[in-house]
Target: Biotin-dependent 3-methylcrotonyl-coenzyme A carboxylase alpha1 subunit
Amino acid sequence: MFARLLIANRGEIAVRIIRACHALGIAAIAVYSEADRRALHVRLADEALPIGPAPASESYLRIEAIIEAALRSGAQAIHPGYGFLAERATFARACRDAGLTFVGPPPEAIEALGDKIAARRLALAAGVPIAPGYHGADQSDETLAREAERIGFPLLIKASAGGGGRGMRIVQRADDLPAAVESARREARAAFGDDTIFLEKLLARPRHIEVQILADSHGNYVYLFERECSIQRRHQKIVEESPSPVLTARQREMIGEAAVRLARAAGYVNAGTAEFLYDETDGSFAFLEVNTRLQVEHPVTEAVTGIDLVQLQIAIAGGARLPFRQDDVQQRGHAIEVRLCAEDPVTFLPTGGRLTRFDLPGDIRCDTGVETGDEVTLYYDSLLAKLIVHADDRAAAIARLRAALDACAVEGVTTNLPLLRAIVAHPAFIAGETTTDFLTTHTIPQHLPVPAPIPDEALLAASVADVQLLAHGRAATRDPWSALGPWRMLRADMPLHYRDGENERSVRITEDTGEWRVEIDGRVYVTGVLEAHPDRLTLRMADGRIERFAMARDGEAQVVEWRGQRFHLVRATLEIGRLGSAGHSHSRAGLEAPMPGTIARILVREGDRVAAHQPLVVLEAMKMEHIVAAPHDGIVLRLPYAIGALVAKGATLVELEEG
Model:
């Protein structure tokens, strides 16, 4: 067994591996980017070494930096976790060349299975059924168009080196194919450095079922049954369970044996997952891909089998034999995992900020890489935590999961908690009707409860605090009026706009003779400031009421606590340069970046007339593309950024005049 092991990852999975190492008596060595200097995995590790700046391409994807850190720390092995370099054969080979043990399959197996085209060919040779499609070497547009017609629409475009939905596009008709191919190639090239794609017939309403496999270096192979992962957004899983609600005992055996045949054909060693699409109409299944690494959803398998997969990974990498045979592995009870992510529950766009509160239930398994007070960065995956429940049967597991989600409290960052709660309470989920189109069929994101509107008092407090901050470039002092200086003399309107979820609230504030006149969506309030500090604000209302607010700043947002409630007010625009400008046209729209990213494509030119919903700019963020479209007909007035430019969240990407 190893004495020291380096973890080439971050976040939740790095914490998971650290705990497995400590259980085995192994010293865990962490690596971190500049953005993760104070991250939880760094705090828990026995030693931590820096590997570069925040962008993954300059830190967690730098093979030479990670190998150097491992050698410098005296580690004998490297665990890649999942994501980043976990499925890179070049990384596994670099570890071997440096005399380090790679906790995963040999590079030859990664190459045989990690490339999805090569994996489809190997599956055919091993007698594993695959979906109809095209996986040829000819990547010309003409060949792809011809093969698409042969396969028939709708179909899927997939990146050969891809995963997590990156480089994947659904094409409903032939006219959409060229643009989809171009977009898929571009996204695959950015995410994986390889723009090779293949085509696959799109099944109408399949289930996504995967099989956990384990193999040692002595020729022993087992499957640890299946996980159903059909509920997804953007082709990425958010709910996983074991066993599948639909498989019979015979089907479970057939799909498990198919996964083992494929692993044997590839000379696989260590943990891996074979993924399949299952067609309920005829009970058939078709091979999708093999993930040559540990899966995010591995805890549900651990729950129903009682087997610690990470500890076994490390033992197998150290030369140990599997401690059990296929007949020894049993499924017990039912387990469900949900992924708690820092993202908008309707648009699925990632969010960031500081976690002012992060409370998870203490009576279930929660795998997380963050704590209260930690910063959630947009540089990496949006996963905050995984909640895993286990019970005697599926109904009891669902009941336990609903209680666990209700017990979660996360503040400071927008999360998908409302979506998760709606999914597990939905009758179709309770009935086990979980096909891959679950979210769109039941339109769950669109039907989420609308949060109660933020009270005007909270908006009033935020706007008063903001104008004082803008006046002197810092938080208010004990005596705000003596500090106002030239701002007090301006006596001009201060138009502010705040986002309250998907709604935008308008505030116009004027200071006059020691009081503030604040207009919120047409309603007028007059208030005086009795006390102002960076962390609290006391206002006297016109009717004599005294209102006290706890204040905090979270980037460009104000966090306001009032009467036991907390509100996170994101400031949408600050038109300081146009104060009191009667000539300001309200028909102009500044289309903003929903998150930090890189301008991948600009589809229009200044002066172009565009139609409502027409794509204008393509923003690449989190290695995926996001289209910025026109909200109405209009004329493009200005395009402030060029292709390749890095932009911040909220940056104006297009200035558009309505008309």
Observations:
- The longest strand covers residues 221-233.
- The radius of gyration is 27 Å.
- DSSP finds 18 helices and 37 strands in the chain.
